[in-house]
Amino acid sequence: MALEAWVMEESDEDQRLPHQKNPNQVVPLTELEEIGVLYWHLDPKKQESGEELEKIRETRGYSYMDYLELCPGKVDNYEEKLKNFYREHIHADEEIRYCLEGSGYFDVRGKDDRWIRIWIKEGDMIVLPAGIYHRFTLDTSNYVKLMRLFVGEPVWTAYNRPQEDHPARQGYVKNLLNNSGVALEAH
């Protein structure tokens, strides 16, 4: 199963809709890699015990892991949390998410500052680099169970846009301009 990504159509409609342009403008994995987004497709039935996941965790230094189940009835202040996740922001660290069940959208800013929508489904694992502008929402299924991975202790601090002076943003832009490589090849 391949990751699906496309250039988003700007719209005020429900954020959980696909918002694909007509015709759809597919964004290939190579373009996501150019902006620092890494992707793997893993076997979600193995979760923590899968060899490939263990290799990724070891190579990239992901020492902490927890789970987030996001849907109405499972999360206090569900609608408010979803709105917060959908605010454009950056983090000082990578954002690593492995979709175990359900589906949702990560939107990231491309090189030209346009929104690229990435549809993650069961088995998809993505890494968003520190400093990339992004946001998250569920799709119309209104359910996702994610494994969240961190280097060291978990940090969830979001810095809402604009953050051009934040060190993580400056580092991201510098790496983007220098087109630096990635630490572990994704697929």
UniProtKB/TrEMBL annotation:
Question: Keyword set for this entry?
Answer: Amino-acid biosynthesis, Cytoplasm, Dioxygenase, Iron, Metal-binding, Methionine biosynthesis, Nickel, Nucleus, Oxidoreductase
Which coarse location class applies to the principal site listed for this UniProt protein? membrane
Q: Could you say which residues bind Fe(2+) here?
A: 89, 91, 95, 134
EC number(s) per entry: 1.13.11.54, 1.13.11.53
Record family assignment: Belongs to the acireductone dioxygenase (ARD) family.
Where is it localised?
Cell membrane; Cytoplasm; Nucleus
What is this protein's record name?
A: Acireductone dioxygenase
Task: Give the note describing cofactor binding and stoichiometry.
Answer: Binds either 1 Fe or Ni cation per monomer. Iron-binding promotes an acireductone dioxygenase reaction producing 2-keto-4-methylthiobutyrate, while nickel-binding promotes an acireductone dioxygenase reaction producing 3-(methylsulfanyl)propanoate.
UniProt function note: Catalyzes 2 different reactions between oxygen and the acireductone 1,2-dihydroxy-3-keto-5-methylthiopentene (DHK-MTPene) depending upon the metal bound in the active site. Fe-containing acireductone dioxygenase (Fe-ARD) produces formate and 2-keto-4-methylthiobutyrate (KMTB), the alpha-ketoacid precursor of methionine in the methionine recycle pathway. Ni-containing acireductone dioxygenase (Ni-ARD) produces methylthiopropionate, carbon monoxide and formate, and does not lie on the methionine recycle pathway.
One Pfam family name is ARD
Q: How does it sit in the membrane?
A: Peripheral membrane protein
> Gene encoding this polypeptide?
LOC109721379
Q: Does the keyword Amino-acid biosynthesis apply?
A: yes
Please name the pathway: Amino-acid biosynthesis; L-methionine biosynthesis via salvage pathway; L-methionine from S-methyl-5-thio-alpha-D-ribose 1-phosphate: step 5/6
| Residues binding Ni(2+) | 89, 91, 95, 134
- GO MF term set: acireductone dioxygenase (Ni2+-requiring) activity; acireductone dioxygenase [iron(II)-requiring] activity; iron ion binding; nickel cation binding
Show the catalytic activity.
1,2-dihydroxy-5-(methylsulfanyl)pent-1-en-3-one + O2 = 4-methylsulfanyl-2-oxobutanoate + formate + 2 H(+); 1,2-dihydroxy-5-(methylsulfanyl)pent-1-en-3-one + O2 = 3-(methylsulfanyl)propanoate + CO + formate + 2 H(+)
Give Gene Ontology CC terms.
cytoplasm; nucleus; plasma membrane
Q: Give the cofactors, semicolon-separated.
A: Fe(2+); Ni(2+)
Q: What is any one GO biological process for this UniProt entry? A: L-methionine salvage from methylthioadenosine
Q: PANTHER family annotated for this entry?
A: ACIREDUCTONE DIOXYGENASE (PTHR23418), ACIREDUCTONE DIOXYGENASE 4 (PTHR23418:SF4)
The answer to keyword Oxidoreductase applying to this record is yes
